Amino acid sequence: MGIAEKRIEELKGMKFNVPSYQRGYRWTMHEVTTLLEDLYNHDSKLKYCLQPLIVKKVSENTYDIVDGQQRLTTIFIFLKFMSAEFGGSRRRSNQYEFFELAYETRKKSSSYLKELSFDTYKLIAEYDIDASHISNAFSAIDDWLDKDDINSDNALHDIYKVLTESVFFIWYEIDETEDPINIFTKVNLGKIPLTNAELIKALILDKNNYVDGYESERIHRSIAWNRIEHRLQQDTFWNFLTNNAIYDTRIDFLFNLQANNAPVNSSIDKYSTFYTIYEGYKIAKNKVEFINQFWNSIQLLFEELNNWYMDLDRYHLIGYLLSLNSLNINKVFAATRENKKSEAFTKLKELACETIPEIEDIENLSYGSKSVRSLLLLFNLVTLINKGEKQYRFPFDLYKKEKWDIEHIHATADESAEPDDSIGNLTLLDQNTNRSYQDAPFYEKRKTIIEVDAEGKFVPVCTRNVFLKVYSCNPENFNSWTEDDKSDYISSMKKELAKFFNLEEEYV
């Protein structure tokens, strides 16, 4: 596959065939006017990138359209409108005729488009369903120009200026050996769009980016790509790095990091990550070397993230920081890159320490305080690190999927009384389990937690310890959570955190 960009003017003289397996033109008035609004409001100095136009070359300047027919046809109709509006003695009508559209099984549609004008568009509306949509699109342009806030002449020329100077198709040309029907089905089944990852993969594996004798490198990169994708599909790894993030393709996470220095692409243009990479490729003097360097950087980035996961101590601290905010990943990079392992760990500890209040102030926290959730989560992770348990890995995937949140250890028996929202009465409980016992007293919650834990389900270590009264100095009474229990719990929390942050002399 070959990827390029093409201005609308570069389509001049080209003929596009719409194969029989595609439906006819079906854009509605809403879709047409939405595109007009976008073009009208777009700054002509900035690039406007349309969705991919997937084509297969048939002969010189002749292509079968695999995907992108609807948008290309709408642009054709707009150019016909320009011809009709400014034709005759005012301007040469053919100056707006750029390309030709033909239909393999809808021969009349080609005629409808060629003959489209103010005199014909209403007449053809009743011919067939294809003609009706073509007519409605032409009419939609006319109606849009009649809006009170639109200056028709200026609006048309403004759109035309953007269209000819700023608009690009992502030109996606498939190999002669590829089956266009399979690609069409893949792209359109269930309205699944072409993704950044697919475009980037096509660029990386483009035959033109490999010199003679190195074609086998394409195979190795394809295998490596699949290996990375497979790893990212593992929820234990994925939810360590992200907060249940949804991507068209998970490898997009790496490309966004590499291209935009952020895990998520916030641009309104869904293909901007690809376009950022493609811009670098386009201006590169040595395109083969550019692809080599880019792919190597992706592999190194992946290995870096995988090493975070494999190193258990760093895993817990990094997983904690990323669970608070995915954008913390840049802080993690700054802490870990070009630093020895011990130095990196120290810097990660400093970042974690910044997320919670002063240890001496912990007892002042209560339900609703912003820091409570992060404090309780960090308490769990620090406990594991301090214990030096090299076999236990906190399951961030379960923690995030099951929505463990702040809940009361012991509910207030008297409904008229104020609930105890102090930190000494708070722990992490998963929402499903909590709903099962709701406002039950301590001993009932304790029984449920013990049963859930015995079944092998995930229970955070500190939550389990709370209900087993591990933190209580005098744990004789297992039916209630007393004031002494709360005080001992807070004291244990302070000691554990102080030990981890090397502040034992202050707080122990």
Description:
With 508 residues, the protein is of the alpha/beta class. It has three domains: 2-193, no CATH class; 202-306, no CATH class; 356-507, no CATH class. Helix content is 51%, strand content 10%. It has helices at 29-40, 69-85, 107-114, 129-145, 152-165, 180-188, 196-204, 216-232, 235-241, 252-260, 272-283, 287-310, 312-324, 329-336, 341-353, 372-387, 396-401, 431-437, 442-454, 461-467, 483-500, 504-507; strands at residues 2-7, 15-18, 48-59, 62-67, 100-103, 167-173, 404-408, 426-430. The strands form two sheets. A six-stranded mixed sheet has the order 1-6-3-4-2-5, sandwiched between helices. α13 packs parallel to α15 (341-353). The termini are far apart. Residues 89-93 have low confidence and may be disordered.
At a glance:
The protein is an alpha/beta fold.
Helix content: 40-55%
Overall pLDDT: 86
The spatial strand order of the largest sheet comes to 1-6-3-4-2-5
Low-pLDDT runs: 89-93
So how many helices? 22
Mind describing the biggest β-sheet? 6 strands, mixed
Number of domains: 3
Fill in the keyword field for this structure:
508 residues; alpha/beta; 3 domains; 6-stranded mixed sheet; two-stranded antiparallel sheet
Q: Strands, helices and their partners?
A:
Blueprint: E1 2-7, E2 15-18, H1 29-40, E3 48-59, E4 62-67, H2 69-85, E5 100-103, H3 107-114, H4 129-145, H5 152-165, E6 167-173, H6 180-188, H7 196-204, H8 216-232, H9 235-241, H10 252-260, H11 272-283, H12 287-310, H13 312-324, H14 329-336, H15 341-353, H16 372-387, H17 396-401, E7 404-408, E8 426-430, H18 431-437, H19 442-454, H20 461-467, H21 483-500, H22 504-507
Parallel strand pairs: 2-4, 2-5, 3-6
Antiparallel strand pairs: 1-6, 3-4, 7-8
